[in-house]
Write a structure and sequence with these properties.
about 150 residues; alpha/beta; Rossmann fold
Length: about 150
Amino acid sequence: MMATAKAKPTLTLLVEDSPIDVKMTRAALEGRPRHHQLSVANDGQHALAYLRGEGAYAGSERPDLVLLDLNLPRLDGHGVLAAIRSHPELRLLPVVVLTSSQSTEDIRLAYEGGANCYVTKPADVDEFLSAVRIVHEFWCDTVSRSPA
């Protein structure tokens, strides 16, 4: 019987300015079967600095998944998505838009911008927790990722 290597923790970058939504996302991921880390950027500019490893984020590990709100200060989610998709080292990073917007225009722009998925945040707390768990499980446990 072969020894299995310990699974690398899943790293998720949550780009979210609402402290309540950050707290609920943390709660949704607590106790997950696979070890995970959640890093948070509370605006679009911090998210890009984190992803590029700039300034205070020098040496930060690249996340396995980005959960991206659209309604952000300083640089909105559409701008963050455009920057990710135009960056040669980040362009294949899975980005799930997780936002309160149900606007057909936001949905269209997100998919045109290269979002992998668009999820509208449920207003109900239990539904929100469930949605985050399902998205995380799908993108971090089910989808095959590039080994790089």
